[in-house]
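Appendix B, example 12.
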Amino acid sequence: MKNSDVYETDVLVIGGGGAGLAAALSAAEEKKKVLLVEKSKYLGGTTALSIGSITASGTKHQKRKRIHDSPEAFFEDIGKYNAELDVHDNKELCWVLVREAEKTIEWLQGFGFEFFGPSPEPPHRVPRMHNVIPNASAFPVLLQRAARKNNVKFLTDLTAHHLLQYDGRVIGAILYQKTDNAFIEVRARLGVILACGDFSGSDFLKRKYWPSDLAEVNPYNPNCQGEGHLMGSKIGGHLVNMSVSRFPNIRFIPAPKRLWNDFLPTTPLFIKLYGTGSRFLPKQIVTKIAKHIITTRGAPDAKLYKEGAILVNNKGERFTNELKDPSIPLSKQPKGQAYIVFDSLLARKFTAWPYYISTAPGIAHAYLQDYEKNFPDVISRGNTLEDAAKNHPRSFSLVEAVRRYNRFVEKGKDDDFQRLPLGEGILEPPFYILGPAESYIGVSIGGLSINSRFEVLREDGKVISGLFAVGRTGGGLILSGHGLNLAWALTSGRLAGKFVAQNK
């Protein structure tokens, strides 16, 4: 395509993650001409980086296991999960999610998707978390395959520059192709769907709406630059819940090599066989598979610090009271990294319930022995602190930091960070070091204000004709807990595709 090119379609979808793919496929099912554009070279977005679970109620999977559930109970439990942030939630949109998530799972299964579960996750009163088979890569692969069969056209490596309007109606967008330094005009007869993800990677939006400490934390998905937020707000779209935020996540740095489960095929036949087999496989086999995933993508549990572990940075220094949320202080350390240090007294605890290092809720818990087996790159052990710290960039300083902490334990006072309780010290060999771990923003909350038809609204509540927003680009829902963000992405995309197809 060249600068002079004008591409005409019925529906333009901007963004090729789960929400955008679902929207494009849904609109194409209505026999509309659909073009999806994605700024990356590959489709999938944050959806492809997820664990791959969808939380829903009233599903066939629940009924098969005789789990009694209702939309009302689901709605109530989401509010409990949100805790103090629930006052910011959009209840109208939350009801859309609650009532439609089950239909989304059924819709996906029509394209060859299979799920195992549901798995429990308190405070959900019953198991609701449905886990995709074999992994999250199934979403971009199967959705794209189905979309192509329905004649959806894809353009990748293209950035949406700005939206086009005529007489107050959004009629398309101008795209920019960096490789050719070319602008492309796309006219969309029925409307434009913004599916650009969240704004966790946008320095501009984070600094505008968040405290400076939080704004400096790196995003889980650097491609989430808030383009949809910016394009929509530039033509009058109202942004909601932009200042609402959570503490960052802490994760061990992923394995340098791809995991074996990443190579599992995503062909419909394999998924069908895997899905059928998962209902009959012994639980210990499913648990073993899950442990391979959570040890390499796991979040260290706060109980490690409560039982006496400490955090040190790349300089070998403690930098915070570990019993307070360490995510912001960790993000400020050299390279944004830290290590967890403990001794065999604590290590023996973290080999069995209830002392686990990380978890995939309702599926499996990973203990110290699982990390030693599945992810040796993140754990080191030694009969002396010096030996355990051999892979640390400043091992001498780390040893001194542990000795200083042990003196605080002996006298019962942390002179550096006033931590209490201090635990029993790091005294008994062998010694262990887990890391490095880093802090990052998983998903931002704020988005464009939308109604239950996913139409973007102005501050006065009036619709911007022809403009829709899905996933984390629209709604500003709170969505705490596992499986809700993915449920919202796919459900909002599925429904918005149908609504835009009805647009005139």
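The domain at 6-55+88-96+136-247+443-501 is CATH 3.50.50.60 (FAD/NAD(P)-binding domain). The chain is about 35% helix and 20% strand.
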